[in-house]
Write a structure and sequence with these properties.
The complex is a heterodimer of chains A (141) and B (415). Chain A contains five helices and six strands, in the order βααββββαβαα. Chain A is an alpha+beta fold. Chain B has 19 helices and no strands. Classes of the chains: A alpha+beta (141), B mainly alpha (415). Chain A binds chain B through residues 35-39, 41-42, 81, 83, 85-86, 88-89, 91-93, 113-114, 117, 120, 122, 125, 128-129, 132, 136, and chain B through 11-12, 14-16, 18-19, 62, 109, 216, 219-224, 227-228, 250, 255, 266-269, 273, 277, 310.
């Protein structure tokens, strides 16, 4: 199974400040351990929300809002995607991460495509096919 | 402690075992020079953890805790009077806790590699290698391995016991070889890993066409191996091949569990994260190898499909060229059959049929269901329906996979 791990941001990450060298070194070691164990599928850091945008949907109206989003309770500063056998394995890995200071890190299992298998009716699937054929036709013309 | 809390700890212990068991067994093998004994010691440490952790809580460094516990067991074994060879080997045992931890950390890479090489020792049959690898490196229980391969638990248990005995009796050396000797030994590991993957990718038996958990396990082993021996091109080739094949897993099965062949697959359902990882691994293999090895060549072929946004965009000419190299390297009739398919896509079904007809009397393909299946496909495309139907029926009789048989029977009826 895949688990998405949200790394929370704080004032420093929002200010674009780099963490201490010591923390960077510890995090690098932790990331290396994940790679060596074949657990790490992907990882990225996110820019401060000052560079982010939001699109608000209301009826047919779309309103674009520029960052920063300081009012947000939870700011995401990065993420990992891990391949594990169980959520418990992911928890055990996360416990080894060099976080501190009351930080809370959330683990979210990714839906297995099998979970959608039954919901995705043949009709919906056929629609997808038609859409792709149309895109293909447009690309060629 | 409530039952619920106990269950939570048990799950946590299992998770720790999943993460630590290979390193633990690997470290113990280095010390006691016996795979069977090392695994027994590790298992005993696990049992102790299961007893103590629910009360005392999970220790801060569970890996080191398990190692210290296992090491103490090892010393008990020595006191009870070990065989002389064992006594000699354990003389190197570090004693203090801190020393032990450092030793473990410094040797982890070599320990894991040694364990993989031993579990896949050429002395062992492929089945034994697969079972031992899943057990020692994957941390799977005998029951899990048995269920994955649809065989009984006693069969797997016996296979593992025999394999361990073979290794002990043959007194296989535990040194990690370097250079060409390492490459040779690695090929035996790659073979076992690929076999695990293939069993998950196209199950040879049973009702399911794929068993993704086996693919995931093989991929994990491959990724670990790629970090252990980053300069071995074929390891990256195999990882690339598995990543790209795994990217199509969810597109390979239709809503009622029926197989969907590559060119009919909905490419929007391919897992782009795995495609990306696969192509990156392929680039690593290509940068290291000249010429490409068998896994890298197959990965390059898979890469051609992965890069084509639609089936008609596939670069069949390049695929044929890659198959030419692969045929030369492997001399395998199965590869020649695959090449015939590529040739038919590049130059038409008549060209493909000519190549397949030359393979009909090949003894190695006599009971291989894909030969009549491919031949049937070419005949059908050439409008020779009656001959095509016979071939599909023959293929359906030869396959052992229920889903595939249904697919072939459907093609026979449609011809």
């Amino acid at each position: 199974m895949r688990v998405l791990v949200f790394v929370p941001g704080d004032k420093n990450s929002e200010a674009g400040k780099m963490p201490s060298q010591e923390l960077v070194a510890k995090m690098t070691k932790f990331n290396e351990d994940l790679v060596k164990a074949g657990v790490m599928l992907a990882a990225d850091g996110l820019t401060p929300t000052a560079k982010a945008k939001r699109v608000k949907f209301s009826g047919s109206e779309r309103t674009v809002v520029d960052g920063p989003f300081t009012e947000s309770k939870e700011i995401i500063a990065g993420y990992w995607i891990w391949q594990v056998k169980s959520i418990d394995e992911a928890v055990e890995w996360l416990k080894r991460a060099p976080f501190d200071g009351g930080v809370e890190v959330t683990l979210r299992p990714v839906f297995d495509p099998e979970d959608f298998g039954k919901e995705l009716s043949p009709e919906l699937r056929a629609k997808g096919e038609n859409l792709r054929a149309e895109v293909e036709r447009q690309r060629r013309s | 402690m409530s039952g619920e809390g106990g269950a939570a700890t048990r799950k946590a212990v299992e998770a720790v075992w999943r993460i630590e068991s290979a390193r633990l067994i690997g470290g113990l093998v280095r010390m006691v020079r016996d795979v069977g004994l090392a695994e027994d010691l590790a298992q005993e440490a696990l049992v102790t953890a299961m007893e103590r952790w629910p009360e005392a809580g999970i220790p801060e460094n569970p890996g080191a805790w398990l190692m210290t516990t296992a090491k103490n067991r090892a010393i008990d074994h020595i006191r009870r009077g070990p065989p002389p060879a064992f006594e000699l080997a354990t003389r190197e045992l570090p004693t203090a806790g801190r020393d032990l931890e450092t030793t473990i950390d410094e040797n982890v890479g070599d320990d894991l590699l040694r364990l993989m090489l031993v579990a896949c020792h050429p002395l062992l049959s492929t089945e034994a290698r697969v079972a031992l690898t899943l057990r020692l490196l994957g941390g799977l229980t005998t029951d899990e391995i048995a269920r994955a391969f649809l065989v009984s638990e006693p069969t797997i248990a016996q296979r593992i016991v025999r394999a361990k005995r073979t290794l002990t009796e043959a007194r296989v050396p535990f040194e990690v070889p370097r250079g060409p000797e390492l490459s040779a030994r690695l090929s035996s590991v790659l073979e076992a890993v690929y076999l695990i993957f293939n069993e998950g990718h196209a199950a040879t038996k049973g009702d399911d066409w794929t068993r993704p958990e086996l693919c995931e396990e093989a991929l994990r082993l491959g990724r670990i191996l790629a970090e252990l021996v980053p300069k071995e091109a074929e390891v990256h080739g195999l990882v690339a091949l598995m990543e790209i094949h795994a990217s199509r897993l969810r597109a390979r099965v239709g809503p009622s569990g029926e197989p969907i062949l590559l060119l009919d697959q909905d490419r929007s359902r391919w897992d782009q994260l795995l495609v990306h990882r696969g192509l990156a691994a392929l680039a690593r293999a290509e940068a290291l190898a000249e010429p490409l090895g068998r896994y890298a060549l197959q990965a390059a072929i898979a890469g051609c499909h992965a890069r084509a946004r639609t089936a008609p965009e596939t670069d069949w000419n390049r695929i044929v060229a890659l198959y030419d190299a692969l045929v030369e390297l492997t001399q395998s009739p199965v590869v020649e059959l695959n090449r015939a398919v590529a040739v038919s896509m590049a130059f038409g079904p008549a060209a493909g049929l000519e190549l397949v007809d030359a393979l009909v009397n090949e003894p190695a393909l006599r009971s291989y269901h894909l030969l009549p299946s491919v031949r049937g496909d070419f005949l059908s495309k050439l409008g020779r329906s009656a001959e095509a139907r016979k071939e599909f029926e023959r293929a359906a009789r030869l396959t052992q996979n229920t889903r595939e048989r249904e697919l072939l029977m459907a093609r026979a009826r449609a011809s």
